[in-house]
Amino acid sequence: MFDKTNLYGFTLEELEELMLDLGHKKYSGRQIFQWMYQKNVFDFQNMTNLSKKLRAELEEKYLISLPKVLEVKVSEDQTVKYLFELEDGMLIEAVKIPDDPRLTLCMSSQVGCPLGCKFCKTAQIGFKRNLEVGEILSQLALVQMMLKPYERITNLVFMGMGEPFLNYDNVKNAIEIIMSVLAFGIGHSKITISTAGHVPGIYHMTDDGLKVRLAVSLNSADPDIRRKLMPITRKYPLDDLRRSLIYHTSQTGRRVTFEYLLISGITDTIPAAKKLVRFVEGIPCKINLINYNPSPGLPSEFEPSSENQIFRFRDYLYPRTPAVTIRASKGIDIKAACGQLAAEHQ
Ligand code: SF4
Questions:
Q1: Does residue 338 have its Cβ closer than 6 Å to ligand 1?
Q2: What domains are defined for the chain?
Q3: What is the band of 342 on the pLDDT scale with cuts at 50, 70, 90?
Q4: Burial class (CB in 10 A: 0-12, 13-18, 19+), 79
């Protein structure tokens, strides 16, 4: 049992290659791919278009195994948080966010995170390890299997635990499986990678031709404040980040989304808004303003912005910047902010 190889997470090419290596037809790889990722069939015996011989052989050496769903918490606003237990006992989270007509799933790319953002619960877990391709995919598969018959995940954001660009190859392979019409069939325009500002990752994704959307968790355009809030700024300063985004938008023709957390007196002031306007100038973008969501264990000097200040900030930004939305904090009662639930369990 323990030395069986888990096929969940294998790409189409890997499955086809495996079939050839085992002396079977290449197209059996495609059939297994569809059974696993399109039909959620995880028992080889139920893969009825495979020969009995192949099924027996697979059974002997391979298995298809997904993480365990440990906890499901439903918020008053219908946001749902899922806690998954991985094979090695590590915990990760995903959050389903209804925003009619969209149903978005926020997924994790790492267990914990090494980047240490001061406002983030995941940062407090520290970095444990990267997620495997199958562990990334299974967040989507397991949530889909728990949906009501009329529901469907329409959008995906890699905005949960972890920095996706620090696990680029696995995130990319998972995205390619998610986009495949033989698998989950979710289009590239519905998938967003959110980065804390990993500049080499932005260049790599752009040059790699990965056609998904890019979001940047910016939170401050003031170098000193951002360095304090997000230590990654020391390695990749704002000027370098800005240059990488100009490159990305000019090469892809796609605008980026800036996520901007409003922390009272720190990031929500008019001087901060002025810096933000200067930072985004020349970058096709939209800005999402999100009010800070306090949580035990996070710095006590951080407080959410007042409603008045949120509107003052928004009114300064627009129309000086192309598009600004105020995003409601969802699922506060179920600890939906990134890492909150897992941090509590760890
Ligand atoms: S906000 Fe994102 S990048 Fe920053 S520590 Fe949390 S998970 Fe990591």
A1: yes
A2: 5-63 (1.10.150.530), 68-345 (3.20.20.70)
A3: confident
A4: buried
Residue of 57, 85, 93, 135 marked active site: 93
> So what's the pLDDT on residue 2?
58
CB 84 within 8 A of CB 92: yes
Mutate to test the pocket of ligand 1, among 109, 111, 115 (most ligand atoms within 8 A of CB): 115
Strand 256-262 relative to strand 285-291, pairing: parallel
Q: At what angle do helices 27-37 and 12-21 cross, to 10 degrees?
A: 130
Tens-digit pLDDT profile for residues 278-305: 999 999 999 999 999 888 889 999 999 9
- The residue ranges of DSSP E strands in the chain, in sequence order, are 5-6, 62-63, 68-74, 80-85, 91-99, 102-106, 110-112, 127-130, 155-158, 191-195, 213-217, 256-262, 285-291, 324-327
Instruction: Give pLDDT tens digits for 216-256.
Output: 999 999 999 999 999 999 999 999 999 999 999 999 999 99
In angstroms, the CA 8 to CA 242 distance is 38
Average pLDDT over residues 206-211: 96
pLDDT given for residue 101 in this prediction? 92
The angle formed by the CA atoms of residues 238, 239 and 241, to the nearest 5 degrees, is 60
Cβ of 92 closer than 6 Å to ligand 1, yes or no, is: no
Residue with tokens 């949580």: 295
Among 108, 113, 226, the mutation site with the greatest number of ligand 1 atoms within 8 A of its Cβ is 113
290 CB within 6 A, ligand 1:
no
| Tokens describing residue 53 | 């011989």
Query: Does the pTM exceed 0.90?
Result: yes
pLDDT score of 223 = 98
